[in-house]
Amino acid sequence: MSTAVARAPQITGRPVLGAEKEVLSQLSAAFGSKLKTAKVVRERLVEIVIDRSDLVPVCTFLKNSLGFEHLSCVTAVDWKDHFESIYHIENY
């Protein structure tokens, strides 16, 4: 009788079904309550909200641990009472 071992999806290289949930899982394990919100928006799109004080540690983790090496866009939203910075970081 053989037993199948479940493996986590690979999160570098070509798109892998379920990789978004694995990215969220690893981010949650590393940063826990520092993630204000974290969700899969759609295939190949994960959205997280963090404090600006956590930006460098989270981006460093995304690059060094999860292979997100391409910052494709930095933009902002001018809300009435605050600005919101948005970073588009890619993993190919």
Count of individual domains: 1
Low-confidence parts: none
Rg: 15 Å
Helical residue percent?
Answer: 25-40%
Number of DSSP strand runs: 4
Class by alpha and beta content: alpha+beta
Task: List strands and helices in order, with pairings.
Elements: H1 19-31, E1 37-42, E2 45-49, H2 55-66, E3 70-78, E4 83-90
Antiparallel strand pairs: 1-2, 3-4
Helix pairs in contact: 1-2
Tell me what the structure shows.
By secondary structure, the protein is of the alpha+beta class. The protein has one domain (19-90). Helices cover 27% and strands 30% of the residues. It is built from two helices and four strands. It has a two-stranded antiparallel sheet with strand order 1-2. Strands 3-4 form a two-stranded antiparallel sheet. The N and C termini lie far apart (38 Å).
Descriptive key words:
2 helices, two-stranded antiparallel sheet, two-stranded antiparallel ribbon, 92 residues, globular, alpha+beta
Short structural description:
27% of the residues lie in helices and 30% in strands.
